[in-house]
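User: quick one, sequence for these tokens?
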């Protein structure tokens, strides 16, 4: 029995979505490519208003990582330092879009409230609206303990529903995970 063109499209879209979820859910952290590193550096410079800084990797134990909602066992969580002083924190993550994944960063103030979030690399033609600072500014000031609900606390975006929901969930998961890490006194 042959599948119709519509069923084939649905099948492949589903297969790609679950492949992205599999990759996202079971990766051992992000390996930072030169392009991603450059975008991360630019985000840190513009957000914290510094030209010279270092990113100090915060190592999270496997046991603690197993309690978090997001992966913290790779090159994901950093203290942002200038002149050997911590000025904030950065979480580098990935989230699924409709057919692929996108890379994002959440930059934190010292009190662990969100200073800025930014989509660094988006790999699809549709849904790019989530990279707009106008939309992303909704996350600024959110703290651990806050729970964000898409289309209620966070504005919906026509044409980017999957990516916008994914980014909202990712921010919620990051906030919950940062609280777990903070309670463990792992943050330096």
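Assistant:
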């Amino acid at each position: 029995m042959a599948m119709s063109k519509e069923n084939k499209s649905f099948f492949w879209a589903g297969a790609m979505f679950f492949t992205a979820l599999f990759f996202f859910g079971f990766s051992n952290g992000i390996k930072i490519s030169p392009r991603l590193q450059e975008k991360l550096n630019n985000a840190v410079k513009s957000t914290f208003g510094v030209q010279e800084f270092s990113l100090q990797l915060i190592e999270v134990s496997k046991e603690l990582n197993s309690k978090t909602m997001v992966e913290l066992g790779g090159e994901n969580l950093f203290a942002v330092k200038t002149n050997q002083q911590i000025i904030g924190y950065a979480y580098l993550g990935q989230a699924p879009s409709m057919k692929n994944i996108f890379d994002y960063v959440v930059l934190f103030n010292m009190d662990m409230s969100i200073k800025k979030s930014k989509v660094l690399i988006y790999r699809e033609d549709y849904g790019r609206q989530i990279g707009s600072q106008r939309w992303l500014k909704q996350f600024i000031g959110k703290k651990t303990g806050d729970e964000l609900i898409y289309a209620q606390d966070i504005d919906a975006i026509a044409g980017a529903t999957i990516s916008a929901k994914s980014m909202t969930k990712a921010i919620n998961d990051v906030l919950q995970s940062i609280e777990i890490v903070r309670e463990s006194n792992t943050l330096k």
